[in-house]
Amino acid sequence: MHDPTSQPIMMIDSSPPLLHHFGELARLSPQIPAPECNDLPSGTVVMKECCQLPLIDLGCLNSTTERERLACAEAICRASSEWGFFQVVNHGISPELVRNMRREQVKLFQTPFDKKAICGVLNNSYRWGTPTATCPKQFSWSEAFHIPLSKVSEQACYGEFSSLREVMVEFSAAMSKLARVLAGVLAGNLGHPRGVFENICQENNCFLRLNRYPACPVSPEISGLVPHTDSDFLTILSQDEVGGLQLMKDSKWVAVNPNQDALIVNIGDLFQAWSNDVYRSVEHKVVAHGKMERFSIAYFLCPSYDSLIGSCNEPSLYREFTFREYRSQVQEDVKRTGRLDYERKSGAAVVVAEPSGIGHLKLILPRSRVQYGTFRVRNFYLKNPTNMLRLWSTVLLLLFSDSAHHFVSKVLIIAANNC
């Protein structure tokens, strides 16, 4: 008698061919990675620690006690300045809605890869890996749907995934409401009306991104998402219990402990520019897990492409620029280098100070085509006074010789430890 259970089972693979493409990059890459393939500037300490992000109870914003409301707003602003990241609980998005959204997200990503790649679901926004990567360090071990909110309610975007539409419409509306509350608190802290972003960041300009990070058998240090900062005003993240998110804190990578009851909020580049550097847009990444897949959903608070971004107070550290102009520069960086140049992305030039002999320093000043503001120096670490004096002298020479053509808002000076 024929036993159907004895037949081999054909497994339908829902994951994109990440391993194949990563292997091709590893095969083609030189033994010593080129400088642009490194994900950290020279001099940054590579160290992973665990951290507990500031945890803020947003229920206190609705307290009948003014002191509690003010304390909550102050905690939000302080975390945005000191960390650029924080967690929120009692945020108004029900656990049931989060669970329903996660269920539909998992169902969508379980679709066979060949079908996801061609079916055009969610405004044909499916993407995976990093097409522009030129070496393994630039490769993101992930897949995603990146959907403009203007398309979220359109029935035609969902095809056979009709059950996804209702929950996504409700989820995106709830995230949008929360983002505006937080943006209003941050604006109010700087003396501006809480509704200042209502016209700048209309709902149709914002995005929702569904992420899946498949288990990665290659290495625990492979990026699920390469180091970057967010080119928006504000990002709100809902993640599962697997973990993998890391952020740069005090020149070290620190791992964020997942909290199922909290949403993670981080400041984007536009808010840093608008706040005149009061709030920080912090570099972060996702490290792929060796055995478990990870899911997350991110909401991005964005302006229209023609919105003019300028600092909210004078004197301004940034010249005015449009979101379209800024996004074009970001895309050019990715196309040129295969990765997002997170220093130039925020309008910075990088000066790397290296020993080139006794008592001398070699300065490397990459070309900067981002012209947002005036020449400044920050993160200046040199212990030896003689080297410090020589470095400052050289920077001043560079300033006077180059300032007529290129003004940059920040210069990150990184020194070797033995300087």
TrEMBL record:
Annotated EC: 1.14.11.13
Keywords, comma-separated and alphabetical: Dioxygenase, Iron, Metal-binding, Oxidoreductase
GO molecular function: gibberellin 2-beta-dioxygenase activity; metal ion binding
Keyword Oxidoreductase in annotation: yes
UniProt KW Lipoprotein keyword: no
Residues in Fe2OG dioxygenase domain copies: 202-303
Gene Ontology terms describing biological process: gibberellin metabolic process
SUPFAM superfamilies in alphabetical order: Clavaminate synthase-like
Gene3D superfamilies: B-lactam Antibiotic, Isopenicillin N Synthase, Chain (2.60.120.330)
InterPro entries noted in UniProt: DIOX_N (IPR026992), IPNS-like_FE2OG_OXY (IPR044861), IPNS-like_sf (IPR027443), Iron_ascorbate_oxido_reductase (IPR050231), Oxoglu/Fe-dep_dioxygenase_dom (IPR005123)
Signal peptide: none
Swiss-Prot/TrEMBL catalytic activity: gibberellin A1 + 2-oxoglutarate + O2 = gibberellin A8 + succinate + CO2
One Pfam family named in its UniProt record: 2OG-FeII_Oxy
Family from the record: Belongs to the iron/ascorbate-dependent oxidoreductase family. GA2OX subfamily.
Record's protein name: gibberellin 2beta-dioxygenase
Organism of origin: Salix viminalis
Lineage of producing organism: Eukaryota, Viridiplantae, Streptophyta, Embryophyta, Tracheophyta
